[in-house]
Specification:
There is one protein chain. The chain is elongated and about 85 Å long. The protein has 6 helices and 26 strands. By secondary structure, the protein is mainly beta. The relative contact order is 0.11. The longest helix is centred in the middle third of the chain and has 17 residues. It has 3 domains: 68 residues, no CATH class; 76 residues; 240 residues, Alpha-Beta Complex (paralog of FGE (formylglycine-generating enzyme)).
Amino acid sequence: MAQQGEKIEQSVEVRLKPDAGRWKGTIVLMGESCNLSAETKAGRVEGLFVEAGQAAPFTATVEGDKLHFTSGKFEATLARQSLPKFDGSWGSKKVIIGFDGSGPRYTGRIKYGGLGFTFAAEEIAGDLEGVFKIGQTSYPFTLANEQRGIVFETGDFSELIHPLAARYKALPLGSRQTWTNTLGMVFRTVPGVGVLFSIWDTRVRDYTAYDEVNEKVDDAWRNVEWSGVRVSGGPDHPVTMVSWEDATAFCKWLTAQEQADGILTATQSYRLPTDAEWSAAVGLQGETGAMPKDKDMKVKGVYPWGTNWPPTGRVGNYADATAKRSFSGCTVIEGYDDGYATTSPVGSFNANRFGLYDMGGNVWQWCEDWYDNDQKYRVLRGASWDNCDPDNLLSSCRFNGTPDGRRNYIGFRCVLVGGSSR
């Protein structure tokens, strides 16, 4: 009998496991976690849990797939939480579990502490319990089905795990005009540019795959908010709060992965676009100047969507009426509403004539170049969900930031060198 659930208000969670004819477990009540002990009497579970140093009695009655919980005047009916389907790979930065087939009994391999182990496990009382071993040495472990998710536990170690992103098997590049890599990132040729451009900004799902296997990745990109509103809250939103250094490290990691898999050759690699490549990809012509700073806002009246101001229709994700409803007092493009207060999923608006999305709006995009000869700042292009000023939205506008700077309106786009059909 294992019961775990939550009332709609998420006020209580009860976990019960058999223990030598009795029951043991935990209860989370109003956010406070307490240990409990109980026994079965007259067809129901009766026991105690300790809260704030005092013992509190409770009863729990099973009603089909529900558990009716009572403690004093508090009552709640809880639903049983079932284990997810375990297949493929699950893990975190410190542990990776690869499942062979599906349950109810599981086998596979665990990578933990720098070593590889085999394991066997089965569902017991609502959790997955098993043993992993190397040679003749065995270690018990549990995948605990908690309200916050699946938690890997062994000895004193515990860590939340989740499904790891499946990797595509990319087809050979050849002379393709459009190509998809192992993370599902789509690349296209741009006329006159010797690289393939990702058609959208690097997504949360792409960066998650990188973070899962690299312990040194800064976690600033997770759970980003602005004034209580979530930024990049879904797998297909552009990742934000990444520095130029973070973006460059992602490109190097992805290059190494796909070269090792034989997807890329030794002469092919990912990197950030140069300032000149970005200009070509947005369709900007006639720029002059030695450094990006010299070209900043020099071409007037040309925007990623055309030459009209203000924009009409839904041409990109900028500071708009939706943002004004979410953030009191913010300045927006009057009369414009793209429907997003912060970031939008990539590809939510029409692509430009080269098939590239979000070349204007959503997030500022890091470029490879230094902003000027002082070499203190890197270039950013494209404006973001936070911008409304006409000059900032120009295709020729350059923003800049220190290589280690992170902001909730900054992301990046990758290009592939050596993959173009040019």
